[in-house]
Amino acid sequence: MTTVPAAPPAAAQMQGKQRPGDRWFSGTALFAGIMILVTLAAVAIFLIVQSLPAFVATPETASLLSTNFWDYVWPLVFGTVWAAALALLMAVPLSLGVALFISHYAPRRLAQALGYVVDLLAAVPSVVFGLWGIGVLAPAVQPVYSWFVDNLSWIPFFAGPVSSTGRTIFTAAMVLAVMVVPIITAICREIFLQTPTLHEEAALALGATRWEMIRMAVLPFGRSGIVSAAMLGLGRALGETMAVAMVLSVSGGITFALFTSGNPSTIAANIALRFPEAYGLNVNVLIATGLILFIVTFAVNAVARYIVNRRKEFSGAN
What we know:
Elements: H1 10-15, H2 20-55, H3 69-105, H4 108-121, H5 126-152, H6 169-193, H7 197-205, H8 210-221, H9 223-239, H10 242-247, H11 267-274, H12 281-310
Helix pairs in contact: 2-12, 3-4, 3-6, 3-9, 3-12, 4-6, 5-6, 6-9, 7-8, 9-12, 11-12
């Protein structure tokens, strides 16, 4: 009676023999991942250690402070979040429209040309956007601001007095929106192009118009990607420095008025403007504001990751 040899375990069959190239690649990838965590931890430790003296600083030891650190940083946090939120409010609808036009409406040649233009806009230095905001955008929108203040000043957002230069928080938000539109558009475009063709054809076969097909198949499929793109753009807007520092006319304080000359500053712009002349505990105060910005950005990315993970099992069919 002939005996059949037993088959090797499934784990041994799947493991196989590792080539030297595979070991080098896996080791390099592991090292790169570890270095990301080490770098993030090193930045966090540096910010925390350098920020500790600022938390107990007084106006006598740090000239930047009028009372204490928290009274100093709170208007900066408000200005940072307020400007980034306004920018995102303008940028997301525009980015979605451009991405949908490129992926589902434009002819192939026009779509390729627009894709190249969007990618090139993402590479423009922020100082160029700042110069454009000062020299072109601010003078152009100042008459519009005056009209809003003259006719709709009963709305708190449009309260006066209007800025005579146009260098307001809303102008800075528009510059930020133009800067983050290419990032959000590029990501959304690639996500929309990955929508399963069968889902699109099934919607069209059932009698849906192109917009109905996009609303029922494309947008639900790319919802988590849209959130990721928006949060990535928000992270760029939160940390933008030079464009905001050049465009925004800062007077401090907290206000929701969009068109006045009294505007809150942002953390990044405040650090860029004050750090060259800072000394002593003032340096620690500015580093401490950078720690607050680090925490805010980390929290934004954590929330985005949570939203994306909640819908990672979505396949577009449900």
